[in-house]
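Hey, I'm writing a tutorial for new members on how sequence and structure tokens pair up, and I'd like a real worked example in the thread rather than a made-up one. If someone can provide the structure for the chain below, I'll link this post from the tutorial.
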Amino acid sequence: MRKKLGCLHAHHSNIEYIEQAFQNIENVELVHFVDPGLIQQVSKGTDRLASKVKEQLEWMEGCNMDAILITCTNYIALLEEEQLELSIPIIKIDEPFFETICEEKQPQTILFTNPETVEGTMNRLQQYALLHEKSINTKIIVIDNTFELIMQGRRDAYNNAIVQTLHDVAGEQQHISVAQLSMVEAARQFEKESALTIAHPLKSLVKSVMRSIE
């Protein structure tokens, strides 16, 4: 019997990445929910954002989902403020990614394009490392004036900016990650152009999801 996985996105561009990741998984049906307005509100510091995400997840549960995947790190950070009592698993896209980061013992650089995502993501990474008794040495780089490109649908310009930064960083650092789902395409492009591997949130996601819904 196929399992329904509800995917909550902050932007429709993330749908393609998740579809590609699960394209060979026959027993999972993906159902996508997109709320780009919430990201706009995050930058304004609007109240009640956490309760809004909670309401969205409860709505998705009511749509007969077997599990929910949250692909936006801002949404995940907001959930830390709310007590959820859902009857289905909630899979946070950053946790398999954190596991990968924590396995690396050498200094590493993590790239972001959305500055509003950095604090919540890094707080959760530190909590994850502490919980699993891991020591990490990370440097954060925010690629300025870039995130608005993907929000405007200018994907090529967005990817080019990320790839250029990856080339710049690669001269100084061998262990590099991109923290956001929207950066995966550029990371893959860079891997084809270089001999380096770039860690990103999709690489270990499918295994984590399958464990949760089995």
